[in-house]
Every structure is written in structure tokens, then in C-alpha cells.
Design a protein that fits this description.
131 residues; 4 helices; 4 strands
Length: 131
């Protein structure tokens, strides 16, 4: 089972892969061993991936991810000027609220090459139509 420490190790291995163009990671369902700290580790590793064009992350059912984790991930997207496609799955992450989704969406504004966004926040009970 993947944990924050495992995600940190995986994230550390991404650093220095400056030619990497695509990341596709799937975790879940119903994992409670990945938290905001794991997303922070992943975010830190993204910042040096200047050639990244596509990212797909599936954390559906990861029960311990909160708005803070989304904020950390959002910070990792900054500076990814080649990023064209983002697909994020956080369905059934019950600790994410409107504020977390708002912060995430705002982080996309500086990504001038972005052409495609897919977000799944189904069954996130704290997200309303007020975003």
C-alpha cells in the first residue's frame, strides 16, 4: 500500500528528469495512508519538470487529503510552462472543500500552454456549487 513516504520516494526519483513529458499516477481507492504531506512531496518534485506536457493524478478515495494538500499541489503547477493537459481525480476525498477547489482552479490561470483540464470531485461532500 502506498504511503506518504512511498510517494516521497517516488517524487524524489522524478527530480532531475527534465525531459519528462508525461506523468500518470493512480492511487486508491479508499487509501488513508496518503495525506497532504504526500501531495507536498509530489508538488516539490514537479517544479523542476520544465518539459512536462501532461499530468494525470488519481487520488480518488484518499480520505486524508484536505484543502492544504490541494494548495501544495497547486504550487507545484506554477512554472510548468509546457503543461498542456491536466487530469485530476479526487472523487470521494471528503475533506476537500470549496476553498481547496477554488485555490486549485486559480493555479491554472498562469499556465499559458494549458489546453485541457479534467477534474473529478464527485462525492466530495464539502464541495458545493458556490465555487
Amino acid at each position: 500500500m502506498m504511503t506518504d513516504q512511498g510517494l516521497k520516494s517516488l517524487s524524489d526519483s522524478l527530480q532531475g528528469l527534465t525531459s519528462l513529458q508525461s506523468i500518470n499516477l493512480h492511487f486508491g481507492p479508499s487509501i488513508d495512508t496518503i495525506t497532504d504531506q504526500g501531495l507536498k512531496s509530489l508538488s516539490d518534485s514537479l517544479q523542476g519538470l520544465s518539459s512536462l506536457q501532461s499530468i494525470r493524478l488519481e487520488f480518488g478515495g484518499c480520505k486524508m487529503i484536505t484543502d492544504q494538500g490541494l494548495k501544495s499541489l497547486s504550487e507545484g503547477f506554477q512554472g510548468l510552462s509546457s503543461l498542456q493537459s491536466i487530469s485530476l481525480d479526487f472523487k470521494e476525498c471528503k475533506m476537500i472543500t470549496d476553498q481547496g477547489l477554488k485555490n486549485l482552479i486559480e493555479s491554472f490561470q498562469g499556465l499559458s500552454s494549458l489546453q485541457s483540464i479534467s477534474l473529478d470531485f464527485g462525492n466530495c461532500r464539502e464541495i458545493t456549487n458556490q465555487v
